[in-house]
Design a protein that fits this description.
By secondary structure, the protein is α+β, with helices and mostly antiparallel strands. The protein contains 20 helices and 22 strands. The protein folds into four domains: 207 residues, Heat Shock Protein 90 (2-Layer Sandwich), CATH 3.30.565; 135 residues, Ribosomal Protein S5, domain 2 (2-Layer Sandwich), CATH 3.30.230; 91 residues, Rossmann fold; 106 residues, Heat shock protein 90, C-terminal domain (Four Helix Bundle (Hemerythrin (Met), subunit A), Up-down Bundle). It is 39% helix and 19% strand. The strands form four sheets. The chain has a nine-stranded mixed β-sheet with strand order 1-6-5-4-7-3-2-8-9, covered by helices on one side. A five-stranded mixed β-sheet has the order 10-11-14-12-13, sandwiched between helices. Strands 16-15-18-17-19 form a five-stranded mixed β-sheet, sandwiched between helices. Bound molecules: adenosine-5'-diphosphate. The site of adenosine-5'-diphosphate has 18 residues, from helix 2 and helix 3.
């Protein structure tokens, strides 16, 4: 006997809304229906182990089938099934109990995945893609009658005796005209791989097994070897290089969370591939947009987080203020920092070897996350041009004796490239100063960060000033030139270099130091670099910013001063100016060609 009836619903609008507003996320119907099938199967297993069910479990594989003649997509499970009363209760009534609220709240929103889960409309998401949905179900309970339920996307349904012989449920979707894509094998396979890849019950499509039911993040770390972690990484990201290392997450209090986070090889902004962390809820893929759950720097990691405690069915903005999410976020930060600290302590050599590759990540984390920065100060490293690594504290100790200026400020010196800044590096090395290497685009911010944490620390690039002035000491060398001679010298160079571009300064350096030196103040250069990095005003447009330092104690200074303002002094100063520009990489294009030509003429004169 066929039973007819109306779905218990206060609002007739539910189907149009499901169809219209959830458009962008149509594909999630598959995740919802298969999750239901998985739940029904898991429940049966639970009953069996609690001996509430004494039948044979048999094969529990969930099967997905396409019938292209009938235009149907079927999901078959061998779970608990439903009796007629249960269909009535769970399908006919429950789903729509909050329909009114749903319509009011979300009629104009498009966050489909959120809405569906939140209102327990999972089953009804089938109507996004189907014009008719059939259920053939038989409960696991003894002597239960099979039930056949049909609904064509209106609020009326039909229920009659069904044909299912074995316990479980078939959901048969008669795919609508606009959703024909869901009858394509490749489309369904892609979706199954996306959403169901790690679901806990076997799923089969076209005779092929889709999922890995026991992903390694659920296993105990002690049972796993490095190879297992690397193999899983390759399973997730087939064409990637091996990760540097990983963290196996496993918490059950005060929230549930498992997962594995991998540190990929990446050295700077350009190589960064964000959003490679996938979020799962009980092995069901939810999203790879984890921005709301983790601090931004952690999105540089790869891997999987699985937590039923992240509320998936509410809006994004709500997520950020959710207290569970906050706890999870700070837990992950702490775990990552602890892991790095462990590796540093237990195997410093290994850590140093990988520093060039993880350094970017750590620096980025320190710049953007205060908590992480605090912990990372124990293991963040600086490297000098001899390729030796130091923690901040170690380096401070090392350079303190020689590199403290007359005001008690410690000065750390660095180069972006010891080859390119060879002359400058050589000059400070002559004073037995140590030189660090900072060559990552993130370093100008990072340097600022280190300085900001110390009371009396200045970090200067080797070409920021003369070797004497970089670290100013009490004892100053006297100038050998008279005031008049110094005025001449200044005049000659101002004419040669152009007062608008260079600020000419006289310094009494050692006679062995270079006669002419171009420097750019640390402050000015950082301003320029940072505005370039942040895409702000192009500070290169500002002329100047460079100082032309004349060493009054060099013998050529005296020679030029003696020659007074003349062709000869201009020629000499011009040549020295060219050489200074050359060592500061300031000669290129036309300037460089002119320099080459002038040099050849000089040989001739
Ligand atoms: P939710 O899964 O959030 O409860 P759904 O609309 O997806 O909401 O499903 C409603 C109810 O219908 C489920 O809670 C379950 O009791 C029942 N149900 C749905 N699919 C199945 C299935 N394949 N086997 C057994 N029961 C099911």
């Amino acid at each position: 006997m066929t039973k007819q009836g109306n779905l218990t619903v206060h609002t007739e609008n539910i189907f149009p809304i499901i169809k219209k507003f959830l458009y962008s996320d149509h594909e999630i119907f598959l995740r919802e229906l298969i999750s239901n099938a998985v739940d029904a199967t898991q429940k049966l297993k639970t009953f069996a182990s609690a001996s509430d069910f004494d039948g044979a479990l048999g094969d529990l594989t969930i099967k997905v089938e396409i019938d292209s003649k009938k235009n149907t997509l079927t999901i078959k499970d061998y779970g608990i099934g439903m009796t007629e009363a249960e269909v009535d209760q769970y399908i006919n009534q429950i789903a729509f109990s909050s329909a009114e609220e749903f319509v009011q709240k979300y009629a104009d929103k498009k966050d489909a995945a959120a809405i569906i889960g939140h209102f327990g409309l999972g089953f009804y998401s089938a109507f996004m893609v189907a014009e008719k949905v059939e259920l053939q179900t038989k409960s696991y309970r003894k002597d239960s009658e099979p039930v056949h339920w049909t609904c064509i996307g209106t609020t009326s349904f039909e229920m009659e005796k069904g044909s299912r012989k074995k316990r479980g449920t078939d959901i048969i979707l008669h795919i609508n005209e606009d959703s024909k894509e869901f009858l394509e094998t490749s489309r369904i396979e892609t979706l199954l791989k996306k959403y169901c890849r790690f679901m806990p019950v076997e799923i089969e499509f076209e005779g092929k097994k889709i999922n890995n039911t026991e992903p390694i993040w659920l296993k105990k770390p002690v049972t796993l070897k490095d190879e297992d972690y690397i193999a899983f990484y390759k399973e997730l990201y087939p064409y990637s290089e091996d990760p540097l290392f990983w963290i196996h997450l496993n918490v059950d209090y005060p929230f549930n969370l498992t997962g594995i986070l991998y540190f990929p090889k990446q050295q700077n902004y350009l190589e960064v591939q964000k959003s490679k962390v996938q979020l799962y809820s009980n092995q069901v893929f939810v999203t790879d947009e984890v921005k709301e759950i983790m601090p931004e720097f952690l999105t540089l990691l790869h891997g999987i987080i699985d937590s039923p405690d992240i509320p998936l069915n509410v809006s994004r903005s709500y997520l950020q203020s959710d207290s569970n999410v906050k706890k999870i976020s700070s837990y992950i930060v702490k775990k990552v920092a602890d892991k790095l600290a462990d590796i540093f302590k237990e195997n410093r050599e290994e850590f140093e070897k990988k520093w060039d590759e993880i350094g970017f990540f750590i620096k980025y984390g320190m710049l953007t996350d205060e908590k992480f920065a605090e912990k990372a100060r124990e293991f963040a490293l600086v490297k000098n041009i001899e390729n030796k690594y130091f923690t901040f504290a170690e380096y401070g100790e090392k350079v303190k004796p020689l590199q403290t200026d007359k005001n008690g400020t410690q000065v750390w010196l660095y180069t972006i490239d010891a080859g390119q800044q060879h002359g400058y590096v050589g000059a400070v090395k002559k004073k037995s100063y140590d030189v660090l290497v900072f060559n990552n685009p993130i370093d100008s911010h990072f340097i600022q960060h280190i300085e900001g944490k110390e009371e009396k620390l200045a970090i200067k690039r080797v070409d920021a000033d003369t070797p004497d002035m970089l670290i100013e000491k009490e004892d100053k060398i006297e100038s050998v030139l008279t005031k008049d001679e110094e005025t001449v010298l200044q005049q000659v160079y101002e004419n040669v270099a152009g007062k608008d571009k260079y600020t000419v300064k006289l310094e009494s350096l050692s006679p062995e130091d270079a006669p002419v030196l171009i420097t750019q103040s640390e402050w000015m250069r950082r301003m320029k670099e940072m505005s370039r990095l942040s895409g702000g005003a192009n500070m290169d447009m500002f002329p100047g910013g460079y100082d032309l330092i004349l060493n009054t104690n060099h013998k050529l200074a005296k020679k030029i001063a003696d020659t007074k303002e003349s062709e000869e002094s201009t020629r000499m100063a011009g040549y020295l100016f060219d050489l200074a520009r050359l060592s500061q990489n300031l000669l290129s294009g036309q300037d460089l060609t002119d320099f080459v030509n002038r040099s050849m003429e000089r040989l001739d004169s």
